[in-house]
């Protein structure tokens, strides 16, 4: 169960990073389109949007780009922590669970922002939060916890040292 959860979480983390990068590139493309509209409007073409609306759209897309890149950067440690958890490191499981939060928050806030802007059709994007929630539950299932305990690295017992790091004197009986 541990290996399956770790691998699925790492793959989901990579998918989230890809999603955020694609969304950031889409927002950058939209800025280019809006700037073309602004230049057309300056040239005397009939554009229905006001200059203020177009400039507001540019600033919103710039903010979206920043949020998406931050989301991608905060999701990369999810992949690393997931792969480290395969070795039985409990702290990596905690980190992987914590790093499932940024993709969920970024997507949820994006959907809330779209709804406020009148784009209710983008509510379907909440489906991208489901894998993060399912993986957070999988990390803490009893089977995963048992697998972590069995794979936990065991430290060797400490060796007794003699004077100045020499092995202690062992009395040998006479023969």
UniProtKB/TrEMBL annotation:
Mark the transmembrane ranges: 7-28, 63-87, 94-112, 124-142
Q: Where is this region: Disordered?
A: 153-175
Q: Which UniProt keywords apply?
A: Membrane, Transmembrane, Transmembrane helix
Q: Where is the composition biased (Low complexity)?
A: 160-175
Which top-rank group of organisms is this from?
Bacteria
Task: Tell me the protein's name.
Answer: Uncharacterized protein
The taxonomic lineage of its organism, from the top, reads:
Bacteria, Bacillati, Actinomycetota, Actinomycetes, Pseudonocardiales
